[in-house]
Amino acid sequence: MSISTDAILFYGFIWDAELEIPGINDEESEHAFYGLSNDEIEVGFHTHIECPGYFIALKKTYKCAYRGKIINLDDVEWDGFDRENWRGILHDFVEKNRIDLSEAQGPSWFLVSSTDF
Question: What is the pLDDT of residues 80-91, one digit of tens each?
């Protein structure tokens, strides 16, 4: 028996460990974190070794190959590949939600895996 994982491609930030979000306690952190998503930003979890990590992605770049399903990247909304605009959207979101970037990687392109914990 094998473990199925999702492959997630996006432009944004990742954290390899727990992420402290002001105003959100441990009991509600997962639901509250997912609740931060909006029309421009996708937030979620990725697999880092045996621990969950977090990501914040520019929604127009977010693609997920669920359980290995083949996806086509031709329909990613590249939007002229305007990295400065993308960075501005990401930084505005992070500032609005008071999220600490000191332990984050990015903004950059990431390909991560995700499994159910």
Answer: 667 788 899 999
